Please model this.
Amino acid sequence: MKIMVLNGPNLNLLGVREPGIYGAGSYADLIAMLQQYAAEQGIELDCRQTNHEGVLVDWIQEAMGKFDGIVINPGAYTHTSIALLDAVKAVRVPTVEVHISDVDARESFRQISYIGMACVHTIKGHGLQGYVEGIQFLQKYPGN
Model:
C-alpha cells in the first residue's frame, strides 16, 4: 500500500506555533511517528509539506494512479481553497482530511471545509495521532 501524507501552510512550525492548540510535538516528531507506523504495517509512505496552495494541487494530481490514498492536513487552505477540493475530486484517490485541533470548537471560519466535501473521511481534534488514524482508515477502505 502506498499513501501520500500532505501538510499545508505552517505545519512545518509544529511545536512552535501555538502549542496550546497544536501540541508540543514538532513536524519532525510527526514524520518519525508516521514512518514508524508505516514500517510496522509495510506501508510505503511519502510525506510532504508546503506553504503553497498550487504545490498541494500538483502533489494531489501526482497521486493519481500512483497512490492508494492521501492523508491531508491542508491547514488554512481547508477554509479557502476550492482548488484543493477540485483536485481531490478530479483524481479520485481516497483522501482523508486531518486536523490536529478540533476546528469545530474554534473560530466560525475554521468550521468551513471545502476540501472535506471531496474526502472520504475527516478526523478532527485527535492531535498528531489523527494522522495515524487517517492511515488506518485508508488501510480498511474498500479497494485497498
Remarks:
- The chain has a mean pLDDT of 94.
- Residues 9 and 51 are 4 Å apart (CA to CA).
